[in-house]
């Protein structure tokens, strides 16, 4: 006897970007009254609701249309630091001073596994509340803190790609390891967690400033031995950081070359920031299909600079959005999209005019591609997992007003990016499982 799991027909106003709007002006697909048939967590069929109802008369219907609800693919955060959730908002310092005074003292506290577990829970609930269903997570320097992270990630139901962060110089001694320990610890974590539940592993040297050539070689040994793990690090964020890397690696052609010489670049690599790249670096990233995680709120908060999106696109480097919590100012990919658009505007003729379709793509499908998960998530195509976020504005809010009067779907999507916050996230699904639901007590009326 064949067993068919029960099917659910989700009825909703949907918007998604199955194609790339940087190459295809009609990439944004919207349907006012769509039906998505979900079975076993996978989207099996889709189309206008009436036709879907007729085709699948026994499926349970879940109607998500009330209160100006819009169903989007779950957001994909391609760069976010789990140990930094409690230090969001340390504004006013450039990168290296911020690391020294704000980030690293907090990261040292994760040596205590109980502390790390509380932080992991806060972090994962921050992601889910923001509508993020998949994240490439910069982990902790401590293996124990990574074990509790993966345990909590499994409980949360979110898709996470994460790894132990390794460094062997120039941070603080308690955060340092050695190449041998980095290799052995990484291997043990990969064997324990890669592919378990919805988690994957990412080999994660912090940045070349805090990594010797030997440590990068140890990281590359892991990616050779386990070719489907991801690799992530930081790149070209701040001029003083770049100058230090130049002095520490006199034999390297540039910052990217420190990773390339170790053999760490591939289409499973994501490098955060890249605010100050050379043309050569962009060419090498494009050749490897290695993605840049653009984190506009962090770039603003640390004064890192204006991301040269046009140069990335021209060179053919894949770009997606990241929040970079805790230098970044929160978990919302809606806010990152809006900030990205503002910062491109500040670049004048060098900037890219980002439409709502671009913002949605950068916050969803582009992230899925960057993580090499494009066959699994990122849009509502048939065969993809049902990873979704229902945005339903708080009653009486400006967002509700604007959505009610928006003349077309693009303007409605622009309103979501302009006014939407985590408070507007009503429900979130990963693989058909509800991973967050706004409770009645979350919706407090103004006094
Ligand atoms: N470079 C090295 N570590 C970090 C970090 O924690 N945050 C940011 N934004 N850049 C880094
Ligand atoms: Zn970062």
Task: Describe the overall structure.
The chain is an alpha/beta fold and 447 residues long. The chain has 2 domains: 7-73 and 380-442, Urease, subunit C, domain 1, CATH 2.30.40.10; 75-370, Alpha-Beta Barrel (TIM Barrel). The chain has 16 helices and 17 strands. The strands form 3 sheets. Strands 6, 7, 8, 9, 10, 11, 12, 13 and 14 form a 9-stranded parallel sheet that branches. Helix 3 (113-129) packs parallel to helix 4 (143-156) and helix 5 packs parallel to helix 6 (213-225). 54% of the residues are buried. The protein binds guanine and zinc ion. Zinc ion (ZN) is lined by residues 79, 81, 138, 234, 272, 324.
- The helix/strand class is alpha/beta
CATH superfamily of the largest domain: Metal-dependent hydrolases
* Tally of DSSP β-strands: 17
Share of helix among residues?
25-40%
List the helices and strands and how they pair.
Elements lengths: L6 E10 L12 E11 L2 E7 H7 L4 E4 L6 E4 L1 E7 L13 H14 L4 H17 L2 E7 L4 H14 L2 E5 L1 E2 L12 H15 L5 E7 L7 H13 L4 E6 L3 H10 L6 H8 L6 E5 L5 H10 L2 E4 L1 H6 L7 H7 L3 E3 L11 H14 L9 H8 L1 H6 L17 E4 L6 H8 L3 H11 L5 E6 L2 E5 L10
Parallel strand pairs: 1-4, 6-7, 7-8, 8-10, 9-10, 10-11, 11-12, 12-13, 13-14
Antiparallel strand pairs: 1-2, 2-3, 5-15, 15-16, 16-17
Helix pairs in contact: 3-4, 4-5, 5-6, 12-13, 12-16, 13-16, 15-16
């Amino acid at each position: 006897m064949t067993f068919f799991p029960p099917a659910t027909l989700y009825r909703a106003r949907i918007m998604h970007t199955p194609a790339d709007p940087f190459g295809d002006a009609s990439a944004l697909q919207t349907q006012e009254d769509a039906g998505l048939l979900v079975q076993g967590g996978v989207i099996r069929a889709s189309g206008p609701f009436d036709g879907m109802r007729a085709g699948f008369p026994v499926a349970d219907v879940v109607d998500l249309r009330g209160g100006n609800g819009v169903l989007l693919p779950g957001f994909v955060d391609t760069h976010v630091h789990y140990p930094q959730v409690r230090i969001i908002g340390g504004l006013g310092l450039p990168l290296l001073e911020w690391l020294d005074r704000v980030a690293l003292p907090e990261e040292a506290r994760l040596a205590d596994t109980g502390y790390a577990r509380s932080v992991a829970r806060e972090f994962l609930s921050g992601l889910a509340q923001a509508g993020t269903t998949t994240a490439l997570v910069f982990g902790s320097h401590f293996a124990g803190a990574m074990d509790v992270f993966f345990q909590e990630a499994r409980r949360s139901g979110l898709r996470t790609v994460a790894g132990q962060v390794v460094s062997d110089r120039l941070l603080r001694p308690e955060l340092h390891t050695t190449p041998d320990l980095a290799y052995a610890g990484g291997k043990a974590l990969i064997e324990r967690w890669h592919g378990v539940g919805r988690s994957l592993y990412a080999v994660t040297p912090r940045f070349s400033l805090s990594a010797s050539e030997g440590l990068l070689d140890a990281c590359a040994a892991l990616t050779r031995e386990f070719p489907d793990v991801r690799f992530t690090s930081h790149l070209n964020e701040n001029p003083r950081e770049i100058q230090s890397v130049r002095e520490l690696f006199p034999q390297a052609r540039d910052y990217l070359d420190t990773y390339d010489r170790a053999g760490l670049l591939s289409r499973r690599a994501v490098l955060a920031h890249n605010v100050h790249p050379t043309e050569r670096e962009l060419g090498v990233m494009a050749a490897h299909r290695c993605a840049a995680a653009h984190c506009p709120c962090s770039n603003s908060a640390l004064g890192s600079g204006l991301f040269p999106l046009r140069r990335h696109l021209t060179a053919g480097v894949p770009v997606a959005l990241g929040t970079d919590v805790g230098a970044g100012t929160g978990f919302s990919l809606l806010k990152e999209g809006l900030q990205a658009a503002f910062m491109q505007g500040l670049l004048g003729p060098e900037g890219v005019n980002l439409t709502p379709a671009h913002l949605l793509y950068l916050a969803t499908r582009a992230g899925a591609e960057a993580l090499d998960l494009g066959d699994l998530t990122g849009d509502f195509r048939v065969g993809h997992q049902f990873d979704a976020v229902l945005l339903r504005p708080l009653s009486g809010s400006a967002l509700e007003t604007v959505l009610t009067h928006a003349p077309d779907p693009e303007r409605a999507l622009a309103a979501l990016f302009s006014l939407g916050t985590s408070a507007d996230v009503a429900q979130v699904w990963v693989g058909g499982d509800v991973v967050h639901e706004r409770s009645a007590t979350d919706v407090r009326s103004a006094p």
